[in-house]
From TrEMBL:
GO cellular component: chloroplast stroma
EC number per UniProt: 3.1.3.63
Pfam families: His_Phos_1
GO molecular function annotation: 2-carboxy-D-arabinitol-1-phosphatase activity
PANTHER family: 2-CARBOXY-D-ARABINITOL-1-PHOSPHATASE-RELATED (PTHR48100:SF10), BROAD-SPECIFICITY PHOSPHATASE YOR283W-RELATED (PTHR48100)
Family named by the database record: Belongs to the phosphoglycerate mutase family.
Broad EC category: hydrolase
Protein name per the record: 2-carboxy-D-arabinitol-1-phosphatase
Predominant location category: plastid
Active-site residues (renumbered): 61, 135
Superkingdom of origin organism: Eukaryota
Amino acid sequence: MLLLAPSPAAAAAAARRRKVGGSALRVRCSSVRELERSPNPRPGERLPPLREAKRVVLVRHGQSTWNAEGRIQGSSDISVLTPKGESQAETSRLMLLSDSFDACFTSPLARSRRTAEIIWADRDDDLIPDSDLREIDLYSFQGLLKNEGKERYGIIYRQWQKNAANFSIDGHYPVRELWDRAQNCWERILAHEGKSVLVVAHNAVNQALVASSLGWCH
C-alpha cells in the first residue's frame, strides 16, 4: 500500500501553495524486497503535485497459466487465470471487502482484468482499464520457458537479471520503457478525484509504481 500525502511543511503553507500549483510529497509504502537495495530515494520527486492525501493499494493478479508453466509472459495476453489464480483473487476480494475504494484502475491484460473483476464484484463503479498498467514489454522473450530464454539469449538474459536498467532486446530498453509508463500511470491515478484507489496489475508494473513514487526510477 502507498500513502501519498503533502509534506508537513507544505501542509502548513497549504493555502499559499495551492495558488502556485501544489506541494511536495512524503511517501509511505509497504516494503518491496527488490527495491530496498536502491540508493538515495527522493520521495515524490517526479510525481504530479498533490494537495491532499491519497491512498493507493497495489494488487498483483492471481496465478496464470503461463505462471504455472514457467513461461515468460511480459505484456503478452495469451495466458489466463488458473483455478488457483481465481482462488487467490477471491482471497484478495475477501481481504479488501471492508476497505472503501473510490476507483479501481486495472491492466487490460486478461489475467489482471479477471483478477480485478473478482475483487471488484460487489462494488458499483466501473473498472478503469489503463494500457500503461500492462506488464513489462519483453519482446522476443515473451512465450519462452525461462530455461529457453537462458539458452537462446544467454548474455541478454543475464543482463535482464543483473543490470535491468541497461537491459536491451530487439532495439528496446524494456525496464526504462516500464519506468516511463509508471510515471504516466501516476499522472492519471493522482488526477482521479478519489482519495482511495485500488490498482490491479502485474509484478514489475507494481514495483515500478513504488519505485517511481520514491524517486528511484531515472
